[in-house]
Amino acid sequence: MQHRKHDATARTSAHGKDGTHRPQDGQDHTTAAKHAGRHGHARRRARAGDARRARHRALRRDVPATVGLLVDDRDFAAMRRYPTFVFDDHPDYLRHTEGLLKALSTQGGHTTVALFDPVEFAHYCQETGLDPDSSASRSRYTAEVASTGATIAYTGQPLDELVPQLVHRTARQTTWEYATSLLGDLGTCSDCGEDAGRSAFDRASRLLVELLDGAGPGTHHLVCSVPAEKGQQLLAVLHTMRAAEAPAVLDSAEAAEFATVLAVGIALESPGGVVLRTSTPDAPDRLHGWRLHGGRLVALTEAEVFSAYCTDADTGEPLAPEPGVEYRAGFAVGDSQP
């Protein structure tokens, strides 16, 4: 009798007086729903966080990065006077810099490298009132250099390949800026009233076209050397190719630099010169030369070209001719009479 009463009580407790099922051991629908709601909210919050991080990564790929590089021991030593510059070994600094470049590259953005010049950096901080012993100041200077100076895009190349490229690009930029400033300081011609710098640049551009026309088809390497003020030596190099019955293919930046340096020699009537080396398949290389005299390019004779290439500039001793090369006289360009 008692046993049957206990079974009835258990059934009533399990199903309720109205016969509906109730969970055993204190389980409750409302509590389970609360747990499910909390878990769902956490999952939605996690998905939203993942989406934000993905958008941040995508946005980061659109932001360029620039790294200022101390390329030699002397520049590195100059930066060690600042306590916030934490490196004390140049090779170790270069290894860490290369690691940083690789890390930036993996993020998918565009990364460039600029030459960090400690002397120019100190001058920049003095002009702008910045504290040179600050990472923020170094960062601002690097951004300034990148916006106005020479940079190299980092594409995964090793530093021992990137550094010479950066030094060469910076030297070209410095030469062009200095030559441009010299032309800009010339003012107007007292005889004709024209801008003297612009007039010299136009003449130099025409001479460059004539040099390339006279060189004919082939791969051409031109060098213009002009002594400038304060003992400066301006040097410009131009590489170009020309197919038969076609104009020469020029790098516009190199052509502008070459014409600018030549224009300085023309305007200042400096005793500079131009050499041209032409290579064609199955034929010896040809070397031609010109000297600047009175603002004109005067063709050198074959003997003068040979002497210029086969004489040691420091000792005056003769040098052996380069094999596979023909030393030829320059050809007439512009008003070539002195």
Automatic annotation (TrEMBL):
Source superkingdom: Bacteria
Biased composition regions of type Basic and acidic residues, renumbered to the chain: 15-28
Bias (Basic residues) ranges: 35-46
Disordered: annotated segments: 1-58
Protein name: Uncharacterized protein
Higher taxonomy: Bacteria, Bacillati, Actinomycetota, Actinomycetes, Kitasatosporales
